[in-house]
Design goal:
alpha/beta
Length: about 375
């Protein structure tokens, strides 16, 4: 079982002499992917986390009543995802899993992993916080870089996020594997639009010269308010369901990229292979997006390249709950589910290899670097 670790700094944990980098396909720091370190399993950690996700309740009482409370049970091969990982329901804290992930990422030419993070003092999130430094060390061995994805929490304000970023600067950003743009450590800020732009400006006055801050935007108005006239250096679209927001709709990317570039800022389009969160939000069928044997992903990539964006991010490497992952999965028919009423798992297509989306990512990454 993994014991709780005290908060540490890079200086206390980073290897003094880095081992030789693993020789694989060269990744590019112009290609990012969102990475979730929140999974735990009974064998490594002594408890389940996230694979045993419960069904999330709908906000409307009439809809909520149609879906009784339910929690997945990985002990019965029932996990909170429509896909079953090739590595099994793993622990993100397991060093062998970190290495396996880095190999997959390098094989796809991905250079930067954007890791979800909350400081340890927020609820039980020390379980996530404690893997950041091991991830940095492992990424360094594989020639990859890491930056943080600042997640929301109850009571979050621009001032509290500024405090979180100050902590992260002290603990993580001096690591040689921490990703920088314009010589500044990079932070993606999820749900940043839920806090007024002027509050971000006030809270980050003393940090604006020290960090490169990327805002999640839903609309062109958000881009204008938070990036072009606000304190953020760039924007990203994140969501994997095309049409879910204007910024996540590829037909709008040319305009968003052009407007950001004209102000010497950036808009980062986020490509996704599909979207399916029905095993955690069973009432959300209207937002499901079929993968169409890779066509959905290909169309996203074509739009991203056509936009002339400098950076592209992939939603996601391993967000299994929302079915946006490109990580290797097992054939759905190969998993025996020992629980009544649970549908078989999906996979990447009949006769397709588990590496199907990693392979396609490598092809599109090469095209992206050639044309942009």
């Amino acid at each position: 079982m993994l014991e709780k670790l005290p908060s540490t700094t890079v200086a206390e944990t980073q290897q003094t002499s880095a081992p030789a980098s693993i020789e694989m396909d060269q990744g590019t720091d112009r290609l990012h992917t969102f990475y979730y370190p929140w999974y735990r399993n009974i064998n490594y950690d002594g408890y389940w986390m996230h694979w045993n996700h419960e069904h999330l309740e709908h906000w409307d009482e009439h809809v909520r009543k149609q879906y009784p409370k339910f929690q997945h049970d990985p002990n019965l091969n029932d996990i909170g995802s429509s896909y079953y990982p090739a590595l099994g329901p793993y622990s993100s804290a397991d060093p062998t899993i970190m290495e396996a992930h880095m190999r997959q990422l390098r094989s796809a030419m991905i250079g930067v992993i954007v890791v979800s993070w909350l400081p340890a003092h927020h609820s039980a999130n020390e379980r996530i916080d404690q893997v950041i430094l091991p991830l940095l060390n492992t990424a360094h061995r594989f020639g990859l870089e890491v930056c943080l994805h600042l997640e929301p929490y109850v009571g979050r304000t621009a001032t509290s996020v500024a405090s979180d970023v100050t902590e992260a600067i002290e603990r993580f950003t001096t690591h040689s594997a921490y990703y920088r743009l314009n010589q500044k450590p990079v932070f993606y800020a999820y749900d940043s639009y839920q806090i007024p732009s002027h509050e971000w400006s006030n809270a980050f006055q003393h940090l604006s010269s020290k960090v490169y801050l990327i805002a999640l935007v839903l609309t062109e108005r958000h881009l204008q308010e938070y990036v072009l006239r606000g304190p953020f250096d760039a924007a990203y679209s994140y969501f994997g369901a095309t049409g879910f927001t204007p910024a996540a709709t590829p037909s709008n990317w040319n305009s968003l990229v052009a407007r950001a570039n004209a102000a010497h800022k950036q808009f980062i389009p986020c490509v996704s292979p599909g979207y399916d969160d029905l095993r955690v939000r069973p009432w959300n069928g209207q937002n499901k997006r079929e993968r169409q044997d890779g066509k959905y992903y290909d169309d996203y990539w074509r739009a991203a390249i056509a936009s002339k964006a400098t950076l592209v991010a992939i939603t996601s490497f391993n967000e299994f709950h929302e079915g946006t992952q490109i990580e290797e999965v097992q054939p759905g028919s190969s998993i025996s589910i020992h629980r009544q009423g649970i549908a078989p798992y999906d996979d990447y297509g009949q006769n397709q290899p588990s590496t199907f989306y990693l392979d396609r990512t490598k092809i599109w990454a090469s095209e992206f670097l050639l044309k942009n």
